[in-house]
Amino acid sequence: MSQKDGALVSGIITENQTFFIKKIFPNPVKDIVTVDVNTVSSGNIQVSLYNILGTEVKKFEPIYLSQGEQQFQLDLSILKQGIYILKVNMSGQVFSQVVKKS
What we know:
The chain is mainly β. It contains no helices and ten strands. The protein has one domain: Immunoglobulin-like (Sandwich), CATH 2.60.40.1930.
């Protein structure tokens, strides 16, 4: 994974991966963050947000994604300014990304 223009950029899907996050933007975010993903198969993902102490501060409703590239948005407007960790889980595979709320 690498950083490009302030957005997360991941590599290609390997044989054991069910999905990967292409980018999360904008970051820092004011209210709405967009997550750009690519999935090998259709299914539900679970998204949670943690503060820097590791405490879960928001658990979003499961999101159904079809196979392929797509985006979904998350409303972070109720959160205070700060640094958070966004965790995305699909089929037991978890990706995490630091998100700054401004």
